[in-house]
Write a structure and sequence with these properties.
Blueprint: H1 2-15, E1 21-25, H2 31-39, E2 44-47, H3 50-59, E3 65-68, H4 77-80, E4 84-90, H5 93-105, E5 110-115, H6 129-139, E6 145-151, H7 160-181, E7 185-187, H8 194-199, E8 204-207, H9 209-212
Parallel strand pairs: 1-2, 1-8, 2-3, 3-4, 4-5, 5-6, 6-7
């Protein structure tokens, strides 16, 4: 099974531009699986829950780049700041302020992405363009938090035209912020639609199901 997982990741890496980072979504998947991907050189892993991420961090090599892709909870931010590489799901100015305050105490600059809502599904959260601008204007001079890009999740429907339109929409926002604020990351595209997202400029894709298959219950073993 592990051999198949390794081959899946290597195959995808060879099929996409080298400029695109693959974030392996490892939530609810075993440490042994992460180790196998680590052994072939992969370093970027994404988790939804603080407690799970912290457990895995303590048990795995310390040069892994951990990405927080789940919703942020104010009272749990402090637990991931010491080792987090990138927080993907920022949607509130108050969270930016908390991240900045903790980063200041720990003498660390925390990189974040703004989560933009690009589809109409209720299950997909995110902020609109105006809200994103307001956050960027308010946190521009904060020294210990840095917003380096945007991310968004497209509709679950298989209508390619809709997917194209949603990715085009986020790309336009990214281009505006890149010009004004120097943003570097445009994160969109998952297992079902990453090839389309890459065509529209995504340079960070999230892949979980296509590599691991269905999530396991006893994920730590």
């Amino acid at each position: 099974m592990n051999f198949i997982i390794e081959n899946k990741l290597l195959f995808i890496k060879k099929s996409i531009p080298s400029s695109v980072t693959i974030l392996v979504v490892s939530k609810n998947h075993g440490i042994s699986y992460i180790k196998k991907l680590y052994e072939i050189g992969h370093r970027d892993f994404g988790e939804n829950y603080v407690q799970e991420m912290k457990k895995k961090y303590l048990l795995l090599p310390k040069d892994i780049r951990w990405h927080m892709i789940g919703r942020i909870q104010s009272n749990k931010i402090k637990y991931i700041i010491p080792f987090i590489h990138l927080i993907h799901s920022v949607q509130k100015l108050k969270h930016i302020k908390i991240i900045n305050e903790i980063g200041l105490k720990q003498k660390k600059v925390i990189s974040c992405l703004l989560q933009i809502k690009i589809c109409q599904e209720n299950s997909k959260s995110g902020i609109n363009y105006e809200e994103a601008v307001r956050i960027l204007e308010n946190c521009y001079y904060m020294k210990n938090v840095k917003i380096i890009g945007v991310m968004g999740m497209a509709t679950l429907q298989k209508e390619e035209e809709k997917l194209h339109n949603e990715f085009i929409f986020l790309r336009k926002i990214y281009n505006i912020f890149k010009k004004k604020y120097g943003h570097k990351i445009l994160s969109m595209g998952m297992s079902r639609d990453y090839n389309i997202a890459i065509k529209h400029g995504s340079n960070l894709i999230r892949l979980g199901t296509i590599i691991f298959g269905n999530r396991k219950k006893n994920y730590l073993f």
